[in-house]
Amino acid sequence: MLAVCGPALGEGFVTSACWRGVQTFMSFLKKMFDTTAVLPVLSTVLPFVRRSMSPELQVRLDLARFGQMLHSQGFVAATEGNLSVRLDSHRVMITPTGFSKGMMHPEDMVIVDCEGRKLEGETKPSSEIGMHLTIYRMRPDVGAVVHAHPCTATGFASAGIALDKPLCSEIVMTLGSVPLAPYATTGSPQLSEVLKPFIPDYNAILMANHGVVTYGADLSQAYLRMEAVEHFAKIVLTARQLGAATPLDQREVERLTALRLSYMRDAR
Questions:
Q1: pLDDT-based confidence at 239, cuts 50/70/90?
Q2: What's the pLDDT score for residue 225?
């Protein structure tokens, strides 16, 4: 029986033969331009290309683009971090292991099934694929996952400090709070186990002595939540250094939480 990751977010992707043609085209472009120049052209300057490309190719381009953004923001270094997108109810596309997130190409991405078995790709999937699949299984609403090591937030995670104090109205509105999961070895089954208690109720989790994982309806939302966690961590650090970290009172937290839930309902 085929395992199920969750609800389909899109069907009818390109056939293998069609994708081989796309790979040939992308390889040709790479010989002409550096990837950092190609992706903005394909994604922004030529909107007609964006409209005509298949959903699967768009996901490949998006993973490469958001990987570059993680790298340029300093949220990852060397070959750290990983990103994935749920393609449909049985497949996930994830970034490859051992690649700088600032130097990935669309054809480097790997497609796996819901047990983590590789279906397509010349490279190996991220060693932390298990964590991504666990999130998809537990959260049918999630369409993308981002894992990174932003310095300030990872500093809090390494100090054993959750970002769960309502010091800033914006974080209550966007994330609620960011809990701290216990430490587990990277890439191990235990990593998924320590995250499980937090996955249903939070959209961002600090991973003790490791980093941060965020997730959302799509890759943009998952990435922006990573930005929000690091931004909030910097605010908390500054407030602590000033010696006057003053949380919002419970009544205001309840108002902001109600507004957040209202905005979420309106966005559906």
A1: very high
A2: 97
CA–CA distance, 135 with 121 (Å, rounded to integer): 22
- Phi-psi region for residue 50, left (φ > 0), alpha (ψ -120 to 50) or beta? alpha
Structural contact between residues 11 and 86, judged by C-beta atoms closer than 8 angstroms: no
Structure confidence by residue, pLDDT tens digits, 144-199: 999 999 999 999 999 999 999 999 998 899 898 999 999 999 999 999 999 999 99
- The whole-angstrom separation of Cα 182 and Cα 208 is 5
Name the residue among 78, 132, 139, 135 with its Cα closest to residue 110. Answer: 132
What pLDDT, in 10s, does the model give residues 227-238?
999 999 999 999
Residue 120 and residue 111 in contact, taking contact as beta carbons nearer than 8 Å: yes
**What does R_g of the chain's alpha carbons equal in angstroms?**
19
CA 78/CA 101 separation, integer angstroms: 8
Break the chain into its structural domains and give their ranges: 16-267
Name the CATH superfamily housing domain 16-267.
Class II aldolase/adducin N-terminal domain (3.40.225.10)
What is d(CA 260, CA 60) in angstroms, rounded to the nearest whole number? 31
Q: Which residues contact 29 (CB under 8 A, 6 or more apart)?
A: 38
Decide the pairing of beta strands 204-207 and 180-181: parallel
Q: Which residue has the higher pLDDT, 35 or 68?
A: 68
Residue from 128, 193, 230, 254 carrying the catalytic annotation: 128
Residue among 28, 94, 32, 24 nearest 64 (CA): 94
DSSP 90: S
Active-site residue 128, yes or no?
Answer: yes
